[in-house]
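Action item from last meeting closed. Structure (193 res):
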């Protein structure tokens, strides 16, 4: 089964978006380089960020996100983001009215069911769980193997927390990756078991 990786860009003080769900300067690193990160040409990063991020993106088979992110992005218009094969949406509600049942989105109730479904779909590829409330729930349930953060040089003060509402201590190993890109610090930690 694929490893589960919690991932997002994050402010220095631990937020993935401001109070209005806007990531703002957290994504500057994705548009200020000269190396295209995907085929769209809209995402350009430094060579260091490309060498770190592109191989990771190529390993991800399934992304897990919460219903809030799904609704904020309008379900990515039924196309999983970044070339991902499937998206598993953690929700207590049914898919939106008129949703195409053939779209590679799977609506499940609960983070444990989401990880199980994602691992089934991903096979030996990585399962990426979006940081925030769902990611924090997966970490608290012991379902996350690795934490990746792209730390942007901004302080939000308030907003949506990287680890959601996790309120107990979880130990990570020392970072096994620390790379400085342009307007970003890439960090990777293994979750201590």
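Sequence:
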């Amino acid at each position: 089964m694929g490893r589960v990786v919690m991932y997002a860009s994050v402010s220095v003080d631990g937020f993935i978006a401001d109070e209005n769900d806007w990531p703002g300067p957290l994504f500057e690193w994705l548009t200020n380089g000269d190396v295209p990160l995907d085929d769209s040409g809209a995402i350009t990063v430094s060579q260091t960020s490309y060498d770190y991020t592109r191989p990771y993106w190529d390993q991800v088979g399934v992304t897990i996100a919460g219903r809030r992110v799904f609704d904020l992005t309008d379900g990515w218009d039924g196309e999983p983001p970044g070339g991902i094969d499937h998206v598993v949406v953690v929700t207590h509600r049914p898919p939106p009215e008129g949703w195409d049942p053939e779209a590679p989105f799977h609506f499940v109730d609960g983070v444990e069911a989401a990880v199980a479904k994602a691992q089934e779909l991903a096979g030996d590829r990585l399962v990426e769980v979006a940081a925030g409330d769902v990611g924090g729930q997966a970490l608290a349930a012991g379902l996350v193997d690795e934490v990746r953060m792209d730390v942007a040089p901004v302080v939000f003060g308030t907003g949506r927390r990287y680890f959601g509402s996790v309120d107990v201590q979880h130990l990570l190993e020392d970072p096994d990756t620390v790379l400085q890109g342009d307007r970003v610090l890439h960090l990777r930690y293994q979750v201590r078991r």
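Note appended to the action item: The chain has a mean pLDDT of 95.
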